[in-house]
Amino acid sequence: MRWMNHRVARQCFLFDKRFNSTLSTTPQTPPTSRTVVIEDLPRGFRPTSTLLRRIKEGTVEELDYDPHNQRVYLSFLHPQPALSVYERFKAGSLSLRSGRVDGQPAPVRMGKPKPLPVKLVAGISDQNANRVLVIGFQASNVDIEAIKEKIFTDARKFGKYGALDVQSRGRSVLFRVYFYSIESAMTAKQHWSEDRAFAKAGISFASYDPCDFILFSHHKKRDGLYDRVLVRNLPVDMGITGAIFLLQPELGRFRNIFKVGEGSYAITFYSHEAASRYLDAAASNYIREPGMEKIEAMAHGNTDAKSKRVSDAAQLGATRTVVLTDIDDYQRFSQDRVREDFKAFGEPYHTAWKPESRAMHITFSDMVHASRAIHRIESRIRSDKAFSDYVEAGLSITFGPEPDAPPSPALVEIKPLRLKKGKITTDISTSRRSPVQKSTAVS
Asked: Composition bias, kind Polar residues: at what positions (predicted)?
């Protein structure tokens, strides 16, 4: 009896040790994986969109279920939400309705790191892509049962989908299709946009994913936070090319610069911290041109509704530069031709041919323009005559580094700062030549 008690006590001790370790163990290194793996699920468990709606940490890229090994793979756009979900499962504060083993939480671990496809990054930044598609018909032009049957039949071709909701709003009928991955939703949207059955329908991504929560608090409308800087009183004849080279921020990447009036430009940064650093740098010096008004640099408030998805894309590696590689025939894809063709996405202000790597670098003023170029060529749209040559030649396109072209020291003369009514004012002077005469750097 004493031996049995000792054996039971030892088993209880080992179980408690193993269980407590399961609850408290978290990765000791900074998170790099975007995937949480839930293992040893009960036979018969079937994941649905209900699971996704319980996740509040961030945007879900994909939910994948492996019935053979009884595992669920939950991938996010960023590593931090994956780590938060992992820790919630470990602590027992998050569980699946039927995803418990003998009354205890199912084992969970972090998956292997994997990169996001370039096409997916472009779709998120350019189209606000997510897992939910909304298909809208006029009520008088739709056979609801026929469309439901077609959606059920087609959706299997694009990937796993979780639910279909049908809503009537006045004279419109909306079909909401919930996929398990953003990529599946993007594929379905492209297919249905070309399908005659949906010719009279409007197809778009939902304004939000049920489990898509804001990850970047600096885009919330709170006092004191901004990510845009307005610069005024530049030479009125300065084009956007001259302004970009003159105002190139050295303390933080910016996602776009655009003209808001004669001599006025707005620079939008990826974060309010970068905008703040830029203004701090402006406060330490200014540049003056004789006879010119003072240049004003000031906070410009929050950006438009695209801020969040553009910031998400920036965190995933998107930039304002695209790189065309594998160019074997430079005569066919010359700088002049590429620059002219890529005006379809926005005005390129910098192009550079790199013969050693057979690559062409094209930089836009806005990251969204670069994303459009990536998506257009990556999607291999052969019916697009303007870019069919690029596809047939087998050229690859990716995001690339932004050109390192800050103002030349020979162009500026640094003088003390003046503060006026709470605004940071700077004066620009050119010691050798006017900035407007500076040409686009093309190598």
From this structure: 426-443
pLDDT of residue 233: 60
Residue 125 and residue 215: Cα distance in Å, rounded?
Answer: 15
The reported pLDDT for the residue numbered 399 is 85
What are the backbone dihedrals phi and psi of residue 325, each rounded to the nearest 5 degrees, phi first? -115, 170
Compute, in degrees rounded to 10, the torsion defined by CA atoms 373, 379, 385, 389: 80
Name the E strands within 281-365: 286-287, 295-299, 321-325, 348-354, 359-364
What's the confidence (pLDDT) of residue 115?
78
Q: How many Å apart are CA 382 and CA 180, to the nearest integer?
A: 28
Domain 2-110 has what CATH class? alpha beta
Residue among 179, 272, 171 at smallest CA distance from 227: 272
Cα separation, 334 vs 244, in Å, equals 24
- Provide the token pair at 52: 């996704």
* Sign of the torsion angle spanned by Cα atoms 272, 277, 278, 284: positive
Task: Assign 434 a pLDDT band (cuts: 50, 70, 90).
Answer: very low
Give the separation between CA 242 and CA 349, rounded to whole angstroms: 9
CB 252 within 8 A of CB 278: yes
The radius of gyration computed from the CA coordinates of the chain, to the nearest angstrom, equals 27
CA 78 to chain centre: 10
Q: So where are the chain's domains?
A: 2-110, 118-205, 217-307+405-437, 320-400
What is the CATH code for 118-205?
3.30.70.330
pLDDT of residue 104: 57
Query: Is the Cβ–Cβ distance between 185 and 127 less than 8 Å?
Result: no
Average pLDDT of span 213-224: 30
Q: Which CATH architecture has domain 320-400?
A: 2-Layer Sandwich (3.30)
Dist. CA 43–CA 307, nearest whole Å: 43
User: What is the widest separation between alpha-carbon atoms in the chain?
Assistant: 102
Comparing 253 with 193, which gets the higher pLDDT? Answer: 193
Residue-wise pLDDT tens digits, 58-114: 678 888 877 777 788 888 877 878 888 888 777 766 655 444 444 456 688 898 887
> What is each CA distance from 95 to 26, 102, 294, 349, in whole angstroms?
17, 13, 60, 51
Q: Dihedral (C-alpha) 379, 384, 390, 394: value to the nearest 10 degrees?
A: 50
Q: Rounded to whole angstroms, how far apart are CA atoms 338 and 362?
A: 8
Compute the distance between CA of residue 207 and CA of residue 196 in angstroms, rounded to an integer: 25
CATH architecture of 217-307+405-437: 2-Layer Sandwich (3.30)
Same CATH fold assignment for domains 118-205 and 320-400 = yes
Helices (DSSP H) in 25-116: which residue ranges? 49-54, 79-91
